[in-house]
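User: Some background: our group keeps a shared notebook of sequences we're curious about, and every so often someone picks one and asks for a predicted structure to add to the entry. Today it's my turn. The entry only has the sequence so far, pasted here. Could you supply the structure so I can complete it?
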Amino acid sequence: MTVRPTSAAASSWPERAHQAILLGGLLLTGALWSAMWLTHSGHGVGPDLSAAASPSLATAGAAALLWTVMMAAMMTPAALPWLSVAAVMPSAGAQPSGAAGRGAVVGAGGSEGPYLRAGSLLLGYLTVWALFSVLAAAAQLLLLQLTLLEPHSLRLTGRAAGGVILLAGLWELSPIKEACLRYCRSPFGALLAGWTPGRAPGYRIGLRHGLTCVGCCWGLMALAFVVGVVSLGWMAVLTAIVCAEKVMPGGHLLPRLLGVALAGAGVALLASPG
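Assistant: Of course. Here's the predicted structure to add to the notebook entry:
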């Protein structure tokens, strides 16, 4: 005789998975910020990242590691709503029972369990940000070669900083930013529409979400060169802005205010003498 779980036990399982995944995401975020503190402390990942003369492969690898840890620490909190939604999506073949299940969307979550769904989505998401980190590290080394970055703070100054601030402000006001942010703020609809049968659907959706998230946030991440790549305080501020845009009620309005402020500050810096 097959023993079926009671409706109360069945309904509590997604909630437990939801809570466990959120807790795991928060613990992972804490671990990543601890690793970020280690990599940022005196550029403590091997070779000096501020070396301006002919960067070696080791220096390039150290810069890429710094950026990869930093992007994972800063962007994982913004992915938590997506992970929690992936956890509670119904699995393939699940049949709603009784009135409580009649509104459920059957099969949207695929055959994987909630932890595998959330984990594969996060892996795909962070894969994209790791690739972005490689490009950011290459930009950092190039700016050092051009002597546009201060060697120890890894911070742009003068008109170069003004140009990046203006570009970030204009991107915040762009329709592409608006479209990407709208997608990022709608995890449930995006997951239901994108979760298709096949191998590793969560990883594919994570890749797509990561690409959209880069489109949404690359301008804000470029500001790291303005405030100092190794400044943990400013990285925390940028992380808070990203999360506010993606999660907070009314967060979709924040880019307009931020874009105007950044564009104005950029123009002022570009127009200033010297």
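Suggested note for the entry: The radius of gyration is 21 Å. The chain is about 70% helix and 0% strand.
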